[in-house]
Amino acid sequence: MLAEIRSLNEECGIFGIWGHANATQLTYYGLHALQHRGQEGAGIVSTDKNYLKALKGEGMVSEVFTPEKIDAIAGTGAIGHVRYATAGGSGIENVQPLLFNSTTGSLAISHNGNLVNANSLKSHLERQGSIFQTTSDTEVLAHLIKRSGYATFEEQAKNALSLLKGAFACLILKEEAMYVALDPNGLRPLSLGKLGDAWVVASETCAFDIIGAEFVRSVEPGEFLVITDEGLRAERFAYPQERSICTMEYVYFSRPDSDIDGINVHAARKRLGKQLAKEIQIDADVVTGVPDSSISAAIGFSEESGIPYELGLIKNRYVGRTFIQPSQDLREQGVKMKLSPVRQVVKGKRVIMVDDSIVRGTTSRRIVKLLKEAGATEVHVVISSPPIKSPCFYGIDISTSGELIAANNTIEEMREIIGADSLTFLSVDGMVQNIGRTDPGSSCGHCLGCFTGEYPTHIYPDTVLPHEKEKVK
What angle do the packed helices 118-127 and 138-147 form, to 10 degrees? Predict the structure, then answer.
């Protein structure tokens, strides 16, 4: 499958809007803007103030929704979700938002992230009689809410959220309100906007642009927002901890036109490329980036080094999402279907190939091979992030340490494996200082767990990696 070609994946993206006559339609457009965060499933739950109505399915946003289906769930408030199905986790039951009905009212939840104490909470809840219908850790939150002994829903939700550990950006929809919550470390991105009198929430600000909404601010770690027809009320379910936004949001996941914590993603990636050029000296004729997430860093590297930037690799945007590759030969062919070298740009040239990260090394090896087959005399691979040596427990499908090439090989060994003439990574300090720099000396906190093995939260003994969690019953 094409996942073999790009083995680093986000868990999902979320979008919500309250107080707009076309809330459901706007949620569709918002999810479309977030499609890069999840391509295996999509869903919307809306409210007309009387009932919650759900529509979800497996596939891309444009495949799941039609105008007729959208009209059938029309409402003035809605939350949506796009999902990346991790290994063993496909199935309509795990597509969000998850909708729960009870005699005391319905609720729907969209969640981006991964709970490091999900197994512990699930075991505790099952001993109390809970029966889980999905393998998603999102369902844990609904059970905690319903089992809370507090009098009001807001108190129940805040109590339940305070028990969660790990990364979670959540939208909760009830008939009469929408609720927003971000984990105390702020590991996942979440932004608040306005569209006229309507409030909008999204994983990335690019979703605001597509519907014409105005960015208001980032949702704060530990914050609990209550949005009703009366307006927005900001409360807290937990004290904020040290800010630890996922660094890979800037390096790879987010769209370049999005802003995270006031930092434009494209500008941050350009600074990473410039810093990379400052840290190394390579004699070369041309700089090229691996489309799409590495283009900004490649431009920055070119500007700083003085080596001209050229479009040496072209991405084929019409490769089928479900293309099957049952053999090694066809996997190699799959790379050629997705990426094509521009022969006249690289032939006879010493090429610097800028990429954002290396996970297993298979992608880099195949791209280096493509460039050399196209006539490049040298291929120097430079990476705009440090080596990924540790798994991510917070919602990114980074494999176990045993599968990470940097966890088991020296840089020289990695260079030999991918067939490059040289291999260089950006330093941790260089990455952090240049991502967070909106003006000299300023920075924001980052999660560096996959690079350093040091995590901002406690990791429980029974914590399940994101790509394995849906195998656990």
Answer: 40
